[in-house]
């Protein structure tokens, strides 16, 4: 009986072994199918990654340097910028989504949440006008005070909640590599802004040299609401971008009145009781980082 059971067990084990295929070819085919499925899944993940790197990075922070800027007031010398720096933050919202047209070009809105710009202008000399009853005194005042003023000026523009159209083109969005992240963006804004002019004068002689026996004047400010418009383009790769922006702004500022001790105040514009339209313009070189 014991021998019979042993024989039956051996037959059952042998039949099970013959029913299974342990060939190397079969195992390789199974591994190849698993690898193929893994590669397909990886390709999908790569495509999603590059699609996100192109279209999924809407928020940005930029630092900019102003080039070729100036501020102008009718009847006054134009001030040309010597140096300017700006910082801004915004978000770009683009449509449509998905394949087809929306896979390589999108339209939308660019929101400039905040934009701060500080500009320093080259100093200029203004001839002072004297009269027998005016602010600078009589004949003795003519000999006491200089006949020219060296004016230094700065401007600070702070804008919030600017909005405008944006067009973004990703010419290599079909590539599943780093080239897919190359994007060109064209945009424009209207940016409500607060403008602050800061200026200070130094009395100089006829040759433009500072008169050391007279003190520099105090810092004087002038404030106004400023309408600001800009347009520009930038080239982006992954999270980094560089571009050029053109800006123009205008506001009605109070007539400027300047004073240095011991002189009495005198206006720098023809009508000291009016507001005058002052314009600002600049070209920015921008560098951005997207979040």
Gist of the model:
By secondary structure, the protein is α+β, with helices and mostly antiparallel strands. The chain is built from three helices and eleven strands, in the order H-H-E-E-E-E-H-E-E-E-E-E-E-E. The strands form two sheets. It has an eight-stranded antiparallel barrel with strand order 1-2-3-5-6-7-8-11.
Looking at the structure, what is the overall shape? elongated
Contiguous runs where pLDDT drops below 50 for at least 5 residues: 131-144
Strand order across the largest sheet: 1-2-3-5-6-7-8-11
Roughly what fraction of the amino acids lie in strands? over 45%
Question: Major sheet, described briefly?
Answer: 8 strands, antiparallel, barrel
Which structural category fits the helices and strands?
Answer: alpha+beta
Number of strands: 11
Provide an overview of this structure.
This protein is of the alpha+beta class and 291 residues long. Helix content is 19%, strand content 52%. It has 3 helices and 11 strands. The chain has helices at residues 2-19, 24-55, 139-144; strands spanning 59-73, 79-95, 105-121, 124-127, 148-169, 182-204, 220-237, 240-254, 257-258, 266-267, 275-290. Strand 9 and strand 10 (266-267) form a beta hairpin.
